[in-house]
């Protein structure tokens, strides 16, 4: 015959419903704990974001081609994100941004970043295909700190200019050479046309003379030869001028780095506030349940009468 379980064994079992009833009796303690936790996180987020401003400028790194424009240079130095990051964190770039904004270098350092926008800014096969091309990348140069919107914009724009200037060494030389060549070609065409006009006038004078002087005939032949030669040179130079003009347009509009979007500062709020509030509510619930049980135990404890 088996022994009946003792009453003490039954009372030692943990009953969840017992604790649930105790927590429900002190529900207001749980509510207060959740509200307090959410309020603390919310106020902390507001104070952390107070005065924070952000600005982003977009820089096109450029797509340099060989001097004759027959091929694109693969992987130019500033297509590497580390080169752009190193540039915006260099002492020279930070000092330039400090002069532009009035913010100390020590406050700017650590609060700026550069992010590759393209190629391959997304995921999947399209991103991999973009990475395999020679397309010039774009970078977003960001500045965020307690400086105000105008100063944040000045910092981002100054750093973007440092990136653009650093990446444009080759294109700057190429553009200069093309402009010199175009100016020379235009001057040569003007000079040759003026020489032709003068030769044509002289030939007209000789043609209007009566009789046939052998010396005049020799001069006339020389003038006609000069006009013919100048006309051929003008045609060749005009073709070269046309090619150089197109090359200049390509160098300035496609090959050269440029700031495509100027930064405009704006205020920011704390990130992930919603998730932070959800976590705070969860923590408040746990703490509230513990406090409710503690309050229930204290309220149920018998008070000893004074001796």
Summarize the structure.
Helix content is 64%, strand content 9%.
Characterise this structure.
This protein has about 300 residues and is an alpha+beta fold. It folds into three domains: about 55 residues, no CATH class; about 120 residues, no CATH class; about 80 residues. Helix content is about 65%, strand content about 10%. Strands 1, 2, 3, 4 and 5 form a five-stranded antiparallel beta sheet that branches. α3 runs antiparallel to α11 and α5 runs antiparallel to α8. The radius of gyration is 40 Å and the shape is rod-shaped. About 5% of the residues have low confidence.
Percentage beta strand: 5-15%
Looking at how many chains there are and whether they match, the oligomeric state comes to single chain
Separation, N- and C-terminal Cα atoms: 50 Å
Low-confidence stretches: 7-13, 120-134
**Radius of gyration based on Cα positions:** 40 Å
Q: Given the helix and strand composition, which structural class is it?
A: alpha+beta
Large-scale geometry? rod-shaped
Average pLDDT number = 81
**Biggest sheet statistics:** 5 strands, antiparallel
Number of helices: 11
- Determine the fraction of residues in helical runs and give it as a percent range: 55-70%
Count of discrete domains: 3
SSE string, helices as H and strands as E: HHHEHHHEHEHHHEEH
The number of distinct β-strands equals 5
């Amino acid at each position: 015959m088996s022994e009946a379980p003792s009453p003490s064994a039954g009372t030692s079992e943990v009953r969840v419903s017992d604790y649930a009833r105790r927590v429900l009796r002190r529900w207001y303690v749980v509510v207060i704990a959740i509200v307090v936790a959410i309020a603390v996180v919310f106020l902390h987020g507001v104070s952390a974001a107070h005065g924070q401003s952000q600005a982003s400028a977009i820089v096109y790194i450029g797509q340099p081609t060989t001097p004759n424009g027959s091929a694109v240079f693969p992987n130019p130095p500033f297509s590497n994100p580390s080169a752009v990051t190193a540039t915006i964190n260099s002492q020279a770039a930070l000092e330039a941004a400090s002069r532009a904004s009035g913010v100390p270098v020590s406050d700017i350092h650590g609060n700026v970043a550069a992010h590759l926008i393209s190629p391959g800014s997304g995921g999947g096969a399209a991103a991999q295909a973009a990475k395999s091309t020679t397309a010039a990348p774009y970078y977003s140069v960001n500045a965020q700190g307690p400086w105000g919107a105008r100063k944040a914009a000045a910092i981002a724009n100054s750093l973007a200019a440092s990136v653009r200037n650093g990446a444009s060494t080759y294109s700057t030389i190429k553009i200069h050479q093309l402009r010199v060549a175009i100016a020379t070609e235009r001057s040569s065409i003007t000079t040759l046309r003026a020489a032709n006009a003068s030769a044509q006038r002289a030939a007209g004078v000789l043609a209007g003379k009566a009789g046939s002087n052998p010396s005049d005939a020799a001069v006339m032949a020389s003038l006609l030869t000069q006009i013919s030669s100048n006309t051929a040179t003008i045609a060749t130079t005009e073709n070269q001028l046309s090619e150089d003009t197109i090359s200049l347009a390509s160098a300035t509009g496609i090959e050269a780095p440029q700031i495509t979007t100027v930064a405009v500062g704006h205020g920011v709020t704390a990130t992930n506030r919603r998730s932070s509030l959800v976590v705070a509510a969860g923590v408040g619930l746990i703490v509230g349940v513990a406090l409710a049980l503690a309050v229930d135990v204290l309220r149920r404890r018998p008070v000893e009468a004074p001796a």
